[in-house]
Design a protein that fits this description.
heterodimer; A: mainly beta; Immunoglobulin-like; seven-stranded mixed beta sheet; four-stranded antiparallel beta sheet; B: mainly beta; six-stranded mixed beta sheet; five-stranded antiparallel beta sheet; 11 strands; 0% helix; globular
Chain lengths: 113, 113
C-alpha cells in the first residue's frame, strides 16, 4: 500500500508556464488537501476537497486551481507560474473532514524562475 | 488578527531529558488541535489529536495538553532520544470542525547523545 503519492518529486519551471502537480491516494479517503510550505511561514492551505466532486478554497488559493473528478486523485494546477510560487507543495488526505488525522505525501519541490 | 505561534528558535536538549514545546493561538476557537512531526525533506506525520474537552492526551513518551482558557497547547517528550530530533508542528481546526487545519511554523528539536 503506497498511501499517498505525489509527482513530480521536484521541478524547475520557467515563469509563465503551466504546471500540474499530481496527487494520488489509495486509502479511499474522502477529504484531500493541498498545502505549500515556505520557510518561516509554515504550512498554508491552498485548496481542499471534502469529497469527490467538491472543492473549496483555503488560505492562499490565488494562482492555483484544483479538481476532484474521483476519490483517489487531486491534481493542483498552476495556470501561469510566477516566482512567488516557488515552494514545497504537500498533498494530504483524511478519512473525513473533522477530528481526523491527515496523511501527507512526500512533497513536490517547485522552483519557478 | 488570528495567529498560531510556536517557539521559533530551535531547541537543543540532552538525551534522556524531558522537553516541552509550546503552541499558542489567538482569535481561534478550535474544536481540536493536532501535533505532527516532520523530518527534513519529508511530509509531516501525525502524532496526536486532542479535543477541546480533553485536558491531556498521551501516547508512549509523548504527552499533549490543551488549555482553551490560556489558548495554548503544550507538547512534552519524556526520556528524549536522538531519534526524536525533528521539527514538531501544531495545527488547529481553523474553521468550525471542517478539517481545514491551520499550522504553526514548527519548532525544531535537536536531541544530543
Amino acid at each position: 500500500i503506497a498511501g499517498i503519492t505525489q509527482a513530480p518529486t521536484s521541478q524547475i519551471l520557467a515563469a509563465g508556464r503551466r504546471m500540474t502537480l499530481r496527487c494520488t491516494q489509495d486509502m479511499r479517503h474522502n477529504a484531500m488537501y493541498w498545502y505549500r510550505q515556505d520557510l518561516g511561514l509554515g504550512l498554508r492551505l491552498i485548496h481542499y476537497s471534502n469529497t469527490a466532486g467538491t472543492t473549496g478554497k483555503g488560505e492562499v488559493p490565488d494562482g492555483y486551481s484544483v479538481s476532484r473528478a474521483n476519490t483517489d486523485d487531486f491534481p493542483l494546477t498552476l495556470a501561469s507560474a510566477v516566482p512567488s510560487q516557488t515552494s514545497v507543495y504537500f498533498c494530504a488526505s483524511s478519512s473525513g473532514s473533522s477530528y481526523n488525522e491527515q496523511f501527507f505525501g512526500p512533497g513536490t519541490r517547485l522552483t519557478v524562475l | 488578527s488570528q495567529k498560531i505561534e510556536q517557539n521559533s528558535e530551535a531547541l537543543n536538549i540532552q538525551e534522556g531529558k524531558t522537553d516541552t514545546l509550546t503552541c499558542n493561538y489567538t482569535n481561534y476557537s478550535p474544536a481540536y488541535l493536532e501535533w505532527y512531526r516532520q523530518d527534513p525533506g519529508r511530509g509531516p506525520v501525525f502524532l496526536l489529536l486532542i479535543r477541546e474537552n480533553e485536558k491531556e492526551k498521551r501516547k508512549e513518551r509523548l504527552k499533549v495538553t490543551f488549555d482553551t482558557t490560556l489558548k495554548q497547547s503544550l507538547f512534552h517528550i519524556t526520556a528524549s532520544q536522538p531519534a526524536d530530533s525533528a521539527t514538531y508542528l501544531c495545527a488547529l481546526d481553523g474553521s468550525s470542525n471542517t478539517g481545514k487545519l491551520i499550522f504553526g511554523q514548527g519548532t525544531t528539536l535537536q536531541v544530543k547523545p
